[in-house]
User: Fold these one by one.
Assistant:
Number 1:
Amino acid sequence: DTEVTQTPKHLVMGMTNKKSLKCEQHMGHRAMYWYKQKAKKPPELMFVYSYEKLSINESVPSRFSPECPNSSLLNLHLHALQPEDSALYLCASSQDQAGGPADTQYFGPGTRLTVL
Amino acid sequence: DQQVKQNSPSLSVQEGRISILNCDYTNSMFDYFLWYKKYPAEGPTFLISISSIKDKNEDGRFTVFLNKSAKHLSLHIVPSQPGDSAVYFCAASGRTNAGKSTFGDGTTLTVKP
């Protein structure tokens, strides 16, 4: 099973709303990732969790707050977003964060976020 | 400075022919390279990878070639099928920067029946 699931599939929110994106994997992977992808652009790394601890934060604004409750789950809490934050948000997981084949990432289908 | 470049935004080939997608990189610390395929409104799907200790890796219709001296890799798809029509991303990572795969901008492949 190489499946990463993400909910919701679509999300529309106002700039004052608080919402959360959820991601789950059952591959026993110990590294999980959040990416943001704009149309016709490559995925842009936001956060990396390794063994449930935040290991990489790519200088993401604080209106995005990640959380890793356990090794299978990854959340992204959203608050006071801007219209320019509208994008496809992708979750991924990999066996580890050790380089080489362990870094092969398996992506979820994404959440299409629209901020009004 | 873009460390992974896919210079062809799009490629169109006839069904049954070979598709060759190219990728160049500048960072000599990269030692692991991947290709992902992405359909619209879906997440990228891992396709094939190659370690820097190899120069070729084959998986069915897909073969990736790595030329370290030229810092160039390519993905060959043969024979191409209409279902291969998608955006293909090249990505690279290194042990000194584990977990931070650097992606190219992608090449849109269209396979015509």
Number 2:
Amino acid sequence: AQKITQTQPGMFVQEKEAVTLDCTYDTSDPSYGLFWYKQPSSGEMIFLIYQGSYDQQNATEGRYSLNFQKARKSANLVISASQLGDSAMYFCAMREDDDYKLSFGAGTTVTVRA
Amino acid sequence: NAGVTQTPKFRILKIGQSMTLQCAQDMNHNYMYWYRQDPGMGLKLIYYSVGAGITDKGEVPNGYNVSRSTTEDFPLRLELAAPSQTSVYFCASRVDGASLEQYFGPGTRLTVT
């Protein structure tokens, strides 16, 4: 079964606007962590933000915030004030309790328009 | 720190050839991983290691082998390359601690023809 689902293969956003990237996950572990990575066209993987399952508040890192809805098993990434440099593929990933590994979603391509 | 380094950056192999993808990290991380990324797809775990001398299979280990004789190095061996192994290969590492992210190398783009 798919552990991480990203249903939006591609999105367009206007510069300076906000964009929300969807991520739903499937786990029966009470302890888990959720990660978002950015992959620009150059190919490297860049860590953006982390949310732990027991964290009381939604994670934020600069223009990135994570809308964590535990009951719905969703961990959507919000990018505020989009910039041209935000054009990239974005991956949601999950680590389950007592597991050393990350499971990745298929990714969402974001294109920021001037 | 150089972080996670991978060599080569690009390689073309003929069907049936073998090669080793090199990965090294200078951050003293115990955990190391090999992923492959097929075009337009997410990353799939091939093998991982939780410390020197310890390796384990990931989601897609067939056709690959690894070794971890030192903390720093985690080479990935392809035996009898097949076109299905055409992919971008990423090595990653992280320190102990569940909330800590994995650091990725720049990737190796492999084509098998």
